[in-house]
Amino acid sequence: MKKRLLGLTLITLLCLGKANAQETNGSKASVEESVTGIQAGPFGAWVNHEFKLTNQLTLRAEAGITTEYWYSGNYRGKSNIDDGWSYNPVITAETRWYYNLNSRIRKGKGIKKNSGNFLSLPISYHADWFFIDTNKQTSYSLDSNILSIVPTWGIRRTIGEHFDYEAAIGLGYGYVFKKKEGIYTWGSDQGTVLNLHFRIGYHF
What we know:
By secondary structure, the protein is mainly beta. It has helices at 2-24, 101-106; strands at residues 34-41, 44-52, 57-70, 74-75, 78-79, 84-98, 116-126, 132-133, 146-149, 152-159, 163-176, 179-181, 184-186, 189-203. Strands 1, 2, 3, 6, 7, 8, 9, 10, 11 and 14 form a 10-stranded antiparallel β-sheet that branches. A two-stranded antiparallel ribbon has the order 4-5. The protein is elongated and about 55 Å long. The N and C termini lie far apart (39 Å). This is DUF3575 domain-containing protein.
């Protein structure tokens, strides 16, 4: 786990260094000072706020409801179950590097409300505050806390004055914290996490 986290940290530092170097060389294109919006897609709904760190870097805070797919055999320490979808709350802190803003301006394309391609490092906490299970035959709760760190590539585009869409894909690391039910402790696990989303949003 330590080696993976070190690798993710190095990737982030490289992105920060390159972005700052580009700004030092006279970069004029810049992200917005702040953008607040709501988004929804096939995998959930979120409210977010993104604010400027440098001309090409932002910090994004997000909270919402996300979906997870679980499958027969084993899910978060439970065995002998079917498959289905679950819904639970998630909080995310994400650093984004919009790396092609200057290129878009040179090509006559807009960068309003941070329209551009980005590399990001979202750190998400999937909380067990509540849990909605689509499999009505499941007689027990499958809740637990998950922390994930997923390097991601994506695009963001603005439509008109207030609408936007995003598409992104990433692959990273997730850890399921131990959960105690009665005298039994279960759920401690780790593995690969896929971040795949398509969202349509409204910004204020």
